[in-house]
Amino acid sequence: MTPALANLDLILETITDGILVVDELGFVLYTNRSAERIFDQDALLGTKLAIPVSPSDAPQEINLVRRSGLGWAELRSAPIEWEGRKAYVIGVRDITERKLSDDRLLQAATVFESTREGVLMTDANKRILRINRAFTDITSYTEAEAIGQQPSMLRSGRHDAKFYAEMWASIAATGHWQGEIWNRRKNGEVYPELLSISAITDKSGEVTNYVGVFADISRLKATESQLDFLAHHDPLTRLPNRLLLLSRVDHAIEVALRDGKMLALLMIDLDRFKDVNDSFGHLTGDDLLQQVAKQLNFRLRGIDTLCRLGGDEFTVLMENIAHPEDAARVANDIITTLGEPWLLSNGKEVRIGASVGISLFPEHGATPVELLQQADTALYQAKAEGRGRFKYFSEELTHSARARMDLEVRLRRAIDKGELRAFYQPQVNVDNGRIVGAEALIRWQDPDQGLIPPLRFIPVAEETGLITAIGNWILKETCRQGKCWIEAGLPPLTLAVNVSPHQFLHSNLEEIVAETLAETGFPANRLELELTESALMQREHEAIRILNRLHALGVRLAIDDFGTGYSSLAYLKLFPLDVLKIDKSFIDDIPHHRDDMEIAAAIVAMAHTLRLKVLAEGVETKEQLAFLQAQGCDLYQGYLTSPPVPADQFEKLLPAQGLL
Ligand SMILES: Nc1nc2c(ncn2[C@@H]2O[C@H](COP(=O)(O)O[C@H]3[C@@H](O)[C@H](n4cnc5c(=O)[nH]c(N)nc54)O[C@@H]3COP(=O)(O)O)[C@@H](O)[C@H]2O)c(=O)[nH]1
C-alpha cells in the first residue's frame, strides 16, 4: 500500500462523517467507524442498508431507525468502481441534532405565534424586539408600531409610579413579576390583563432580555363582576339585597362612629301588595315592584341605599343624617309617593300604600342585624297601628318627629296665609340713651295657638329650608316698614335683620337684598344684616366673598351672638363688618360674674381695635348699662328699654325718647 493510500485509510477513520461503499443492491462493501456510529450498528460490512444508492447532486435526507432511537442523516453518493464491480460511495452526515433543534425552534415559533396570550420580548433597555400575533389582537398595535417602542406605550394611567417601581424592583430581585394590571389598547380603551414578566439573563447573570406574557382578562372580570352583582342584588329590581345591605350598614356604622354621625334604617312594607298579586298574577305584581323600586330610587338622595329584602319589603339606609326627623321626613315622603295610584302593566289602576319602621344608629342598635331587627319591630308596630304610617323603634322619637312634621306643614301654610309678623326691638346709643335703630324679630301669629316665638319654629325652618322663605319675608317686611317710617318723617333708623346660616350659604342673598332694596326704596345704608359666628365660620372663604358683595351694595354687616362660636380673629379681620354684638350670655351676670365682665370688656376693646361698633344684647338692668358705659360700649339692646314689639308700638317709643 502506498503511503497515500495508508493515510487515506486513516483519514477515513478519523472524519466525523460516515463513508460507505455499497454495491448496486445496497450491500455494504466498505464502512468507516463514523458510519457505524451514525447507523448505530457494530458490523455494517456485508449488511444490506435500506438507503438510496443512486447518485444525486443534491443531498438526500433519510430517517434512521436505530437502536438508540430515531435519527436523521444527509446522504450524498457517487458511482465508483470497487474491486472491479460497479458500486457507490456514500457520504453520510448525522443531522439528528440539527433536525431536533430545527423542530424545537419551529415548535417554539408555532407556540409563540399561535398562543392566545400576548407575548413581547424586549432588550435589556426595555425596547420591544418581538411581539406575537396575540399581542396585536389584544392591543391593536401592529409589529411595525410596537417594535422599537417601550412597553410603557400600553400604560393606562391607572397605576401610580410606585406601582411600576415595585414591579421592576421585584423583577430585579427575583427575576419575575406576576399580577393584574390595567393597560390601554390603541383605541384608548383601558382593559385588565394578567401579566407575567421574566428577566432573561446570560451566563454571567446579566439581563439580556425581558419577556412579558399577558392575557386579556376583561371578559373574566366582567363575568366575575356579573357573578358578584348576582350574589349581592335582587334579580327582579336589580336593587342591593340583604347581604349587600348588611355590609353597607356595617360600613356606614364605621363611618358614623368615626365622624360622630347618625344613620337611619327605614324598613318599608307595601300595604295591599298581596291583593295585587292575588288578583292580577305574579307577573303584574313583579311589574309593580319594579315600578316601586324605580320611583323610590328617584325620590331618595344619591347617598341613600335602597334595597329589596324580598317580597314587598324594601329598606333604605340613610347615612349622615343631621336629625332623627330627617328619617321621618323621608318616610313620610315615601308613604305619600307609594300612596299615589299605580298603573299596572295590564292597564288597571290600583292603590297600594306603605308602612315604614325606622331605627337609628347609635340610638337603637350597635350592629347591622340589631338595627334591621329594630326597624322591623317598628314596622310591625306601624302596621298594627293601621298602616300608611311610620314608626320609630322608640315611642318618644315617633311623637317628637310627628310633632315637628306637623309643625312643618303648619308653618308652610302660615307663610302662605300671611301669619308671620315682624316685631322690633330698639337699639339704643349707650352714651345718650337715644334709639338709633331696631332689630326685626319674627313672630308667628297662629290662629289657634296665638303668638308663637321664633325658637319654636326657626330650627324646623332651618332644617327644612323654609328659613329662606321666612328670611326673605322678614327682609322685605322690614324694608317696607323702614321706608314707611322714613316717609312718615321719623328720624333715621338703622334696621337690623337676622340672616340664618342656611340663608347665608345656600341662597342668592346678595341678589335678594338688592332686589328688596330696589323694590321697597329703603336706603341700603340703613339696613343691617346680622350674621351668626357659626354661619361665617362654616365656610370662611365663601363667607368673605358673600360679605364683600353685600358690603358693596352699601348695607351694614353685624356679627351676632359674638363669643358663643369659635370666631377666628384672623378671619374676623378679613370680614367687612360694621358691628359686633356681644351675646346676651356675657351680659346676664353683670355685675356679679367677674369673668363675664372681663370677657365683655375684652370684646369691646378688641372690637374697637378692629374699628367695629359694639352692641351689647340682652341688657336688662341699669347696672349692666352702667358697666357697658364705663367700657365704652357703643350701643345696647334689651328689656331695659323694651322687648321686641309690633311696629305701631315701636313708633310710640320714639316720642318718649324725645325723638319725635
Ligand atoms: N333667622 C332668623 N332668626 C330669627 C328671626 N327672628 C328671631 N330670630 C332668632 O330667634 C331667636 C329668638 O329670638 P326672640 O325670641 O325674638 O328673642 C330675641 C329677643 O327677644 C331676645 N332679647 C332681647 N333682649 C332681651 C333681654 O333683655 N332679655 C331676654 N331674656 N331676652 C332678650 O333675644 C333675642 C334676640 O336675639 P338676637 O337675634 O341674637 O339678637 C334668636 O336667636 C333670634 O336671632 C328672624 O327673622 N330670622
Automatic annotation (TrEMBL):
Ranges where the PAS domain occurs: 4-39, 111-150
Domain of life of the organism encoding this protein: Bacteria
Coiled coil stretches, renumbered: none
Listed name of the protein: cyclic-guanylate-specific phosphodiesterase
Top EC class, one word: hydrolase
Keyword Membrane: no
CDD domains: EAL, GGDEF, PAS
Cofactor dependency: Mg(2+)
Gene3D superfamilies, per database record: 3.30.70.270, EAL domain, PAS domain
Keyword Metal-binding among record annotations: no
Keyword terms of this UniProt record: c-di-GMP
GGDEF domain ranges (all copies): 261-395
Domain PAC span(s) in chain numbering: 177-229
Catalytic activity: 3',3'-c-di-GMP + H2O = 5'-phosphoguanylyl(3'->5')guanosine + H(+)
NCBIfam families found in the cross-reference section: GGDEF, sensory_box
Organism expressing this protein natively: Methylobacter tundripaludum
Record EC number: 3.1.4.52
PROSITE patterns in the record: EAL, GGDEF, PAC, PAS
GO molecular function: cyclic-guanylate-specific phosphodiesterase activity
Domain EAL: 404-658
Swiss-Prot/TrEMBL GO biological process terms: cellular response to nitric oxide; regulation of DNA-templated transcription
Cleaved signal peptide residues: none
Lineage: Bacteria, Pseudomonadati, Pseudomonadota, Gammaproteobacteria, Methylococcales
